[in-house]
Design a protein that fits this description.
about 130 residues; 7 helices; Haem-bd; mainly alpha; Haem-binding domain-containing protein; single chain
Length: about 130
C-alpha cells in the first residue's frame, strides 16, 4: 500500500515546443502523426501518460521503460547531434522499423493504434532515408 504514495517523475519537458523534432526537421503531417502515435511516448521529451500510469508499480515500470527508450533514441535531441550522428540514428530507426522491433510488442499490447501497417512503415522509412541522404 505504501508503494502507491511513491511517484515517479513524469517525462514532460519544460523545453519550448519549438525545439522538438517536429520543428527541427519539419516532417510531412502524415509522418508527424505516425511518430506521435507510435514513437514519441518513449522516444521524446514528452509522454502522453495513460490513466494507469498513476497506479504503482505500473507507474515505476513505465518511468523506467521511458527512460531506457530515451537513452537509446530521443527524437527531440536529434537536431543537436552532428550530421554523422544523425545519419547513424536515422539508419537505426529504419532498421528497427524494418525488422519489426519498434514499436515494442509490449507497448502495442496497450496501444493497439500505435501498430505500423506495411504502408506506414514504408512512409516512415522513406522519410528517414531522405533525412539520411541530406
Amino acid at each position: 500500500m505504501i508503494l502507491q504514495f511513491i511517484t515517479s517523475p513524469k517525462n514532460v519537458s519544460t523545453v519550448p515546443y519549438t525545439q522538438n523534432f517536429v520543428h527541427g526537421f519539419n516532417p510531412p503531417k502524415d509522418v508527424e502523426i505516425l511518430l506521435q502515435k507510435s514513437c514519441f511516448d518513449c522516444h521524446s521529451n514528452n509522454t502522453a501518460y495513460p490513466w494507469y500510469a498513476e497506479i504503482q508499480p505500473i507507474g515505476m515500470l513505465l518511468a523506467n521503460h521511458i527512460s531506457e527508450g530515451k537513452e537509446k533514441l530521443n527524437f527531440d535531441e536529434l537536431k543537436n547531434l552532428g550530421k554523422r550522428q544523425q545519419r547513424s540514428r536515422f539508419t537505426g530507426i529504419i532498421e528497427q522499423i524494418e525488422q519489426n522491433k519498434m514499436p515494442l510488442k509490449s507497448y502495442l499490447f496497450m496501444h493497439k493504434d500505435a501498430a505500423l501497417s506495411e504502408k506506414n512503415k514504408k512512409v516512415l522509412t522513406s522519410y528517414f532515408e531522405i533525412l539520411k541522404s541530406q
